[in-house]
Amino acid sequence: MDIKSSIDRGVGAIVWHDQFVIAAGYDDVERILLLFNSEGHDVTRLSYDSFGRNSTPYWYYQVLESCRTVDVWEVCKESLIQAVYKWEIHDYMLPPQDYACGSAAYSAIASALESRVYEPRQAAAVLRYYCKSRENIASYVAGLGYLSYQMVQVIQEYTSLSDLYLEMIGWVDQCNLWDVKETGCVQSVIALLHQAGETEQRAIDAIKQAFPETIGNRFKDVGLR
């Protein structure tokens, strides 16, 4: 089994179990995998027979078999260029009638909240994922100022974006208001969502300004590597 072989080499495997987790151990006697969440704190015991049986219709694992020296400057620059790609292009693996990706996700979330046809706890989980991811992005780009003098604007926009999400989660955490879909609470979140979408668009535009030649050379497909 690829996952067990990777663990035996001392390298955990990336697994989708309703979120991305790390398979870091196993027990053939009990027939279980030991899964750790992204922060490495919570441990889940997953039986071999339950592997791939998720509440979401996805099955995924990835093992890392080797590594090589890379140009860190180029890798970091490419990560920002791919952020532009993911923002502008719908994920080819997801049916567009069921999913919204990149910039389109903002209007989809806002529309769902406006419709009031959603489950508050699940909506809160989505917003918390967004908040954590933008917090991580802000932390990441804060260390990339050396890539270009124009990275200052990128860093500022992602810092502002992270702050907006923290404010948004402040409303979501008021469970007595959020769970009953109190109008003022929901409208405040929607307003912050619109601000966040505009801020993230400015961050993407700033990335384009920082690396115009490279992105321009991708022509109509900025995802080209």
**Quaternary organization:** single chain
Shape: globular
β content, as a range?
A: 5-15%
Q: How far apart lie the N and C ends? A: 31 Å
How would you describe this protein?
The chain has helices spanning 2-8, 72-88, 104-115, 120-142, 151-172, 175-178, 183-210, 212-216; strands at 13-16, 20-27, 32-36, 43-47, 61-62. The chain is α+β, with helices and mostly antiparallel strands and 225 residues long. The longest helix is centred in the C-terminal third of the chain and has 28 residues, at 183-210. It starts with a helix and ends in a 9-residue tail after the last helix.
Topology diagram in text:
Elements: H1 2-8, E1 13-16, E2 20-27, E3 32-36, E4 43-47, E5 61-62, H2 72-88, H3 104-115, H4 120-142, H5 151-172, H6 175-178, H7 183-210, H8 212-216
Helix pairs in contact: 2-7, 3-7, 4-5, 5-7
Short key terms for the protein model shown above:
about 220 residues, five-stranded antiparallel β-sheet, alpha+beta
In short:
The protein has 225 residues and is α+β, with helices and mostly antiparallel strands. The chain has helices at residues 2-8, 72-88, 104-115, 120-142, 151-172, 175-178, 183-210, 212-216; strands spanning 13-16, 20-27, 32-36, 43-47, 61-62.
